[in-house]
Amino acid sequence: MMNDKLQMFYNRLLKVHKHRSRLAKRMNISCYRLYDKDLPEFPVMIDAYGNRVCLSEYRAKHHLTEEEHAEWMQGTVNVIAEVLQINKDDIYTKERKRKEDRLSQYRKTAEEKEFFEVEENGLKFLVNLSDYLDTGLFLDHRSTRKMVMEEAKDKKVLNLFAYTGSFSVYAAAGGADEVITVDLSNTYIDWAQKNFEANFLVNPRKYRFIVADVKQYLETLTPNTFDLVVMDPPTFSNSKKMKDILDIQRDHAELLNAALRAVKPGGVLYFSTNARKFELNEKEIKASVIKDITKATTPFDFEGRLLRWCWRMIK
């Protein structure tokens, strides 16, 4: 027998699951956001990854004892398992706090690595719900990835701060002539290569993977080389592997201009950031066209809840 609060949560989750699962199936996606702090009594985020679920609790002053909190969490898990008709062992719980840098989101939360395949728009991606705070696939960029795929045919594509290379996979699947994937982390470049292999996209002459500090890497590029660039940098990074500290609000104009130098005239650069109070310094950016595409790239499951911005720039 549920208490009143759990019953309220059950009713809410049942309603959104019925609606969103139907939309997701129609759109050929198996990963989507199901719930995002809809009720104050349940400040959690629930993401579906196929038949598994990532349940993230936002650190808050809940005024519960340790025992009360454990009981509340168990009740939450029970409701999710019942509504989604899944095993409780397939619900992965995480605690999230507001990040001041991107390093914390990459810190492992467990020793064993557990990867499994999910599908999005006919493409396969390896995700991990147990070992890292983030899963390997940012769901809020699903529409942006599709946009890049539709524009990539016969193009030379550069993906900067590539994480696990999902944009790169979409570009390659869209018929890109060449795709270069760059990230500072050996772990994520290796992950990106595995995502390519999962989609039978194996061609060392067309698809290259580079471990590098993006700011330094951009200095090595020949001007007017790429047709399409994707750049989704961290808000802040002070990795020991980097030459300089990155602060995206302070550094974005310089970083964008360095990337634009590598773009052919008429070429396109997609830029995105999760910086909450970000302000684009358009006057300093050397692009002929700058278009805010945040709304156009907001998926159905993030409407009204998206805390990131996205622009499409033409050199």
What does the model show?
It is a single chain. The relative contact order is 0.11. The protein has eight helices and 15 strands. It has 315 residues and is α/β, with parallel strands linked by helices. It has two domains: 4-97, 2-Layer Sandwich (Transcription Regulator spoIIAA), CATH 3.30.750; 116-314, Vaccinia Virus protein VP39 (Rossmann fold, 3-Layer(aba) Sandwich). α1 (4-26) crosses α2 (66-84) and α4 packs parallel to α5 (166-173). It is globular. The strands form four sheets. A seven-stranded mixed β-sheet has the order 9-8-7-10-13-15-14, with helices on both faces. It has a four-stranded mixed β-sheet with strand order 1-2-3-4.
Q: Superfamily at the CATH H level of the largest domain?
A: Vaccinia Virus protein VP39
Mean pLDDT: 90
Q: Structural class from helices and strands?
A: alpha/beta
- CATH architecture group name of the largest domain: 3-Layer(aba) Sandwich
**Spatial shape:** globular
Q: How many helices?
A: 8
Roughly what percent helix?
A: 25-40%
Low-confidence stretches: 98-111
Task: Name the features.
315 residues, alpha/beta, Transcription Regulator spoIIAA, Rossmann fold, globular
Short recap of the structure:
This protein is α/β, with parallel strands linked by helices and 315 residues long.
Write the layout of secondary structure elements.
Layout: H1 4-26, E1 31-36, E2 44-49, E3 52-58, H2 66-84, E4 91-96, H3 103-106, E5 116-120, E6 123-127, H4 142-151, E7 156-160, H5 166-173, E8 178-183, H6 186-198, E9 207-211, H7 214-219, E10 226-231, E11 236-237, E12 246-247, H8 248-261, E13 263-273, E14 289-292, E15 309-314
Parallel strand pairs: 3-4, 7-8, 7-10, 8-9, 10-13
Antiparallel strand pairs: 1-2, 2-3, 5-6, 11-12, 13-15, 14-15
